[in-house]
Design a protein that fits this description.
Structural class: alpha/beta
Largest sheet: 5 strands, mixed
Number of helices: 13
Distance between the termini: 31 Å
Number of strands: 7
Helix content: 40-55%
Oligomer: single chain
Length: 327
């Protein structure tokens, strides 16, 4: 059986300690993902960083880079992507929430994954067009621009009145020349908080206005990450309305195929939608998104992405290499 078909394991405690990734709150996927990042870092001989939990002492963490290493851009898969990140950080939108330490040093960060996936698309519109067509056929023919951590109206009550933003926002034209966009949320190994949001009253009002949810007042939609999905989906609807009746928009969520918690949340959210919302909700696996990088013509980057994020063979090997009866 191919390792790609094998479920992810519960990592033995001695392996977690060996790679400095023993985090008790990690889900099964997060534990394997954290270990994979530590293996990736060690193979490149990149110095390990440290972490201080909310209550506790500083300790080594295998999924972090030492600050001196992080500042070189080593968290990113190519020099041009790292340069893109530095520029985006310098010229980020007013009000954008950017954790610089996390961006440069946290190997597990989904924000870093977003740049590794789409940094080159930001730099090359023709490549971006090919990639988007591979991800969502018959939607965007020509990409005009890509924005990271984008919100068209932070705090503006004409939108959602809060800080809701997309990890990535792609604008362009459909094949017939009408405006089109893709609003994208990327998930990797985040711990989904269960508490509700304080601004869901406006979400319910917008939800009734746009009619995309069977019951916009359902309490399920106030729990993370469904509340986040609802907020970004509604923000997409506001954008579509402002672009005009001929425009096309879609809201995408990307998550690793083996992240069960992420896909359970996606399926829960899908059940709350009407059959044909004005802004389609599309869920893509991270693996399929990496295939789109390859389909766009960048096989080398696709291979690096696969090794970094979705190829868990090194994790399975650590389970298999153990020898019994050896002190």
């Amino acid at each position: 059986m191919s390792n790609a078909c094998i479920p992810l394991p519960i990592i033995p405690a001695d392996v977690l300690r060996r790679f400095h990734v023993a985090e008790p709150m990690d889900t099964r996927f997060a534990s394997c993902g954290r270990l994979l990042q530590s293996i990736w870092r060690e193979r490149r001989e990149l110095a390990m960083g440290r972490y201080q939990p909310t209550s506790g002492k500083w300790r080594k963490l295998g999924s972090r880079l030492a600050p001196s290493v992080g500042r070189t851009g080593a968290n990113f898969l190519a020099a041009d992507i790292a340069k893109c990140v530095r520029r985006e950080a310098a010229y980020r939108e007013i009000g954008a929430l950017i954790d610089e330490e996390r961006r440069w040093g946290n190997l597990l960060s989904s924000q870093v994954l977003t740049f590794n996936l789409f940094g080159r698309a930001k730099l090359d519109a023709a490549y971006a067009s090919r990639m988007c067509k591979a991800m969502v056929p018959d939607h965007i023919e020509t990409v005009h621009s890509i924005a990271f951590e984008h919100s068209p109206g932070r705090g503006n009550p004409e939108y959602l009145g809060d800080g809701t933003a997309f990890d990535l926002f792609v604008t362009g034209e459909a094949e017939d020349g009408t405006p089109a966009f893709l609003a994208i949320e990327i998930k990797y190994a985040e711990q989904f908080r269960r508490q509700g949001r304080s601004s869901t009253g406006r979400y319910e009002e917008r939800g009734r206005r746009y009619g995309m949810h069977a019951d916009p007042g359902n309490a399920t939609l106030t729990i993370e990450p469904m509340a986040q999905f609802m907020a970004e989906h509604l923000l997409s609807a506001v954008i579509l309305e402002r672009l005009g009746p001929e425009a096309k928009g879609a809201f995408l969520v990307v998550a690793p195929a083996q992240n069960r918690e992420a896909w359970a949340a996606i399926k829960t959210y899908q059940r709350e939608l009407v059959s044909a919302p004005i802004v389609p909700f599309i869920a893509l696996t991270l693996e399929r998104t990496i295939d789109a990088v390859r389909d766009a013509g960048d096989g080398e980057l696709a291979q690096r992405l696969q090794e970094r994020y979705t190829d868990f063979d090194p994790v399975h090997a650590l389970i298999d290499e153990w020898e019994p009866f050896v002190a």
